[in-house]
Automatic annotation (TrEMBL):
NTF2-like N-terminal transpeptidase domain mapped to chain residues: 36-147
UniProt KW keywords: Membrane, Transmembrane, Transmembrane helix
GO biological processes: cell wall organization; response to antibiotic
Sequence similarity: Belongs to the transpeptidase family.
Positions of the Penicillin-binding protein dimerisation domain: 154-316
InterPro entries: Beta-lactam/transpept, Beta-lactam/transpept-like, MecA_N, NTF2-like_dom_sf, PBP_dimer, PBP_dimer_sf, PCN-bd_Tpept
PANTHER family tied to this protein: PENICILLIN-BINDING PROTEIN 3 (PTHR30627:SF25), PEPTIDOGLYCAN D,D-TRANSPEPTIDASE (PTHR30627)
SUPFAM superfamilies reported in the protein's UniProt record: beta-lactamase/transpeptidase-like (SSF56601), NTF2-like (SSF54427), Penicillin binding protein dimerisation domain (SSF56519)
Phylogenetic lineage: Bacteria, Bacillati, Bacillota, Bacilli, Bacillales
Classification via Gene3D superfamilies: DD-peptidase/beta-lactamase superfamily, NTF2-like, domain 1, Penicillin-binding protein 2a (Domain 2), Penicillin-binding protein 2a, domain 3
Gene: penA
The name this protein goes by in its record: Penicillin-binding protein
GO cellular component: plasma membrane
The species this protein was found in: Kurthia zopfii
One example GO MF annotation: penicillin binding
Length: 665
């Protein structure tokens, strides 16, 4: 064999070696990629709690060796993780080396976070696929197939909501769980008769009671709860038993329902929004109960332990102390809130009471309302439907809804006029008749006033609420100056309050489409919209030396102020607002009382489709003690002709209460 032949043979051997080596290298890389893929799928499924994906990721042999089926595997993870309320899983330090997967896992449960557990799993080939070799220590590191998880929890006590003086607005009260011990119902016709009587008393459908009694856990001798009732509602009936319990209670009932809200059991929708909630938790469903739910609810405590078959604790996986909910202190005064609610009588409307120098909201009333205690105890569908179908919308918080403010707006327009120099103390306007329009370009549209006066100054215009005077004032100011002035009074501004409220609006567009809209806006009609709270904020300038103050409802908070107008302008406007009460021609003259220095502005906003027709009239009152300046009230009555009394008439009972409380302070 010559050298050439030997060289060819050696070369061939080298090539073959390289080919074989390449095949091994390629296969090795392919195997590594497959291992990474199954490991990633395992980690992702675990993190997302998609346990139904597990059977295809683990070896059949490993499951059989532990006495598990694929269904058992899914059920085990679902029960363990669901039972302890796992709602978030953090996985870190994921590595694969020599077909060994390692990682660390931390669980966020309904009672807190576990420590970080370390895991190790083999990855082997089965039926030409790489899979995880599974055993129970992939649930918890020291877990065996026969071990169980023990979970004991202690519910946190919900905090109370208190008024400014520490009186309860939301607390707990003694109640009774009404229920049935099935054997006490009798049989046949007697049973049917007793269930029918219980159904009528508890306002629960017979079908609902029967469905409750058919639950798998129900036994003849066990107490089956049906509904929570108040102490005064307990009634002895055949088959009906009671167990003492505690329940959320609202001392003011309807008088503060829209503000305080109520609590209830979590629903599937609640759990979807917040997976951290326990399935049996009680949470805030509306009002401040909902807004401050996290603080009020606190944090449940308890223990999660790994136990053997006999229930002996092998390892404590997590122990957390219960943290009771915080009490929430409000600026609301229970006495004022209650008085303001009942003084609205049968009216549909709202009353807001605020301290104009501090911004503290003393009362936020909306009427009609609903019974929050009924909501907590369990309201029937029929009763709930009555609320929902009530055309006066008892679930609406009217103090945060926007309305055309009507003539109360004139006080603000007057202030803007003084600041811009278009209005002075000696300036008068000659106006003839009860209707006026700028010129023929307005077509058939005319501004209407109630009282005829031929020579009108700013005081008379405010005292008798002259629409024409302020329409002309708005036109003289012009859109640019009027808008700039109104914005200083809080239009377009958001306030940090724990409920929804759109900013006060000057108009739907950035600019008025015509002069009529400019004129109408100047006396509180057109497209201008303000909530009763926003009116209180704007009017606070007249009791706070020209500064408006942002509102707050939490006790101890501080409010910010901003310059709306000048002290000089405030004095001029207030001189007229006092006369709105003291002058016999004043629109709030019937509020005059000896020894008080009440300043006020009334308003009527008419809502109608076209001029010349009669529409719904909303009545407003803004008032404060000009001397003490320690309270400010805005009251509003929707469609007051339907109720028969205006906001001014209904305020006659509330104002003395405010005077008394202000004096006590």
């Amino acid at each position: 064999m010559n050298k050439k032949t030997i060289g060819i043979i050696i070369g061939a051997i080298v090539v073959i070696g390289l080919v074989i080596g390449g095949i091994f290298f390629f296969n090795e890389k392919k195997d590594e990629k497959a291992q990474e893929e199954v490991a990633n799928q395992w980690i992702t499924s675990l993190k997302d709690q998609k346990f139904k994906s597990f059977p295809k990721l683990v070896t059949t042999k490993s499951l059989k060796s532990q006495g598990y089926t694929t269904d058992d595997l899914v059920t085990k993870y679902t029960k363990v993780f669901g039972g302890i309320g796992v709602n978030d899983i953090k996985i870190s330090d994921v590595k694969i080396q020599d077909q060994i997967l390692t990682y660390k896992m931390k669980l966020h449960t309904s009672i807190g976070d576990t420590s970080s557990f370390s895991y190790k799993a083999k990855i082997v080939e089965e039926n030409e696929e790489f899979k995880i070799v599974w055993n129970p220590n992939l649930i918890f590191p020291n877990m065996k197939s026969t071990d169980k998880i023990s979970f004991n929890s202690t519910a946190a006590k919900r905090g109370n909501i208190k008024d400014v003086n520490g009186l309860d607005l939301a607390t707990v009260n003694k109640a009774f769980q009404a229920g049935i011990i099935p054997k006490d119902l009798g049989i046949g016709g007697e049973r049917t008769k007793n269930i029918a009587a219980i159904s009528k008393f508890l306002d629960l459908p017979v079908s609902s009671i029967e469905a409750t009694l058919k639950q798998s856990w129900v036994k003849d001798f066990l107490f089956v709860p049906l509904k929570t009732v108040a102490d005064e509602d307990v009634r002895k009936m055949t088959g009906l038993q009671y167990k003492a319990t505690e329940i959320r209670y609202y001392p003011l009932g309807e008088a503060a329902a829209n503000l305080i809200g109520y609590t209830g059991k979590v629903t599937a929708e609640d759990l979807k929004k917040d997976p951290s909630l326990r399935s049996d938790a009680t949470i805030g469903k509306a009002g401040l109960e909902r807004a401050y739910d996290a603080k009020l609810r606190g944090t449940d405590g308890g223990e999660i332990s790994l136990t053997d078959e006999q229930g002996n604790v092998k390892e404590k996986l997590l122990k957390s102390e219960v943290v009771d909910g915080e009490d929430i202190g409000l600026t609301i005064d229970l006495k004022v809130q209650k008085e303001a609610y009942f003084d609205l009588e049968r009216a549909v409307g709202s009353t807001v009471v605020m301290q104009p120098k501090s911004g503290a909201l003393i009362a936020l009333v909306s009427k009609p309302s609903f019974d929050p205690n009924q909501m907590v105890r369990g309201i029937s569908q029929e009763a709930y439907n009555k609320y929902v179908n009530n055309e006066d919308k008892p679930f609406m918080a009217r103090y945060a809804q926007r309305y055309a403010p009507g003539s109360t707006m004139k006080a603000i327009t007057a202030a803007v006029g003084f600041d811009e120099g278009t209005l002075t103390t000696d300036k008068t306007r000659k106006i003839n008749g009860l209707q006026w329009q700028k010129d023929a370009s307005w077509g058939n549209y005319k501004v209407t006033r109630v009282a005829e006066q031929s020579v009108v100054n700013y005081k008379n215009a405010l005292i008798q609420s002259d629409n024409i005077f302020f329409a002309q004032e708005g036109l003289e100011l012009g859109e640019k100056k009027l808008r700039a002035g109104l914005n200083k009074f809080g239009f377009g501004k958001d306030y940090d309050l724990p409920f929804a409220m759109e900013p006060a609006q000057i108009s739907t567009d950035q600019h008025f489409k015509n002069e009529i809209l400019l004129a109408d806006t100047s006396y509180g009609q057109g497209q201008v919209l303000m909530s009763p709270i926003q009116q209180a904020v704007a009017f606070s300038a007249f009791a706070n030396e020209g500064k408006i103050i942002s509102p707050h409802i939490l006790k101890g908070e501080k409010s910010k102020t901003s310059e709306a107008t000048t002290p000089k302008t405030v004095k001029l406007v207030n001189d007229a607002l006092v006369q709105v009460v003291e002058n016999p021609k004043g629109t709030a003259h019937n509020l005059q009382k000896s020894g008080t220095t009440l300043a006020a502005k009334t308003g009527t906003a008419e809502l109608k489709m076209e001029q010349g027709t009669e529409g719904q009239q909303n009545s407003f009152l803004f008032a404060f003690d000009r001397k003490k300046e320690n309270y400010l009230v805005v009251s509003f009555v929707e469609n007051h002709k339907k109720t028969g009394k205006s906001a001014v008439e209904l305020a006659k009972n509330l104002l003395p209460t405010l005077e008394k409380i202000a004096t006590e302070e």
